[in-house]
């Protein structure tokens, strides 16, 4: 069963940007896409556990700040070496001006 957890306000993340969100002893990354949608993935790179929130967001991709591996944050798919393991993704819904993450 999905539990919806309030993570942040929609205006806390600029379009084409990412925010780190720590909850329940885990780290997540919340993304605001260029078309105004929000997405959530695990917050650490699958290559060397670096925080993705320090990376560069371009269109629908996040680039890891350590080795420039890249993921599609909509699907979690690893897109560029050295990353080869996909990120877990989590459902997101908007209620008013709040971003809720399904855990």
Structure description:
The protein is an all-beta fold. The chain has a single domain, classed as 3-layer Sandwich (Rieske Iron-sulfur Protein), CATH 2.102.10. The chain has strands spanning 4-9, 17-23, 26-32, 38-42, 56-58, 61-63, 70-72, 78-80, 89-90, 92-95, 98-102. The radius of gyration is 13 Å and the shape is globular. The N and C termini lie close together (8 Å). The model has no long low-confidence stretch (mean pLDDT 97).
Domain count: the total is 1
Task: Give the assembly state of these chains.
Answer: single chain
Lateral arrangement of strands in the main beta sheet:
2-3-4-9
Number of helices: 0
In terms of per-residue confidence, which ranges show pLDDT below 50 for 5 or more consecutive residues? none
* Overall SS class: mainly beta
Beta-strand percentage?
over 45%
* Helix share, percent: under 10%
Keywords: 2Fe-2S, Iron, Iron-sulfur, Metal-binding
Cofactor: [2Fe-2S] cluster
InterPro entries: MocE_2FeS, Rieske_2Fe-2S, Rieske_2Fe-2S_sf
Protein name: Rieske 2Fe-2S domain-containing protein
């Amino acid at each position: 069963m999905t539990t919806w957890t309030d993570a942040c306000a929609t205006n806390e993340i600029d379009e084409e940007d990412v925010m780190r969100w720590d909850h329940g002893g885990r780290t997540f990354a919340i993304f605001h896409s260029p078309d105004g949608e929000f997405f959530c993935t695990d917050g650490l790179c699958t290559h060397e556990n670096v925080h993705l929130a320090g990376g560069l967001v371009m269109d629908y991709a996040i680039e890891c700040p350590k080795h420039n591996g890249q993921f599609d944050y909509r699907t979690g798919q690893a897109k560029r070496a050295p990353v080869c393991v996909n990120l877990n993704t989590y459902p997101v819904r908007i209620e008013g001006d709040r971003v809720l993450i399904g855990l």
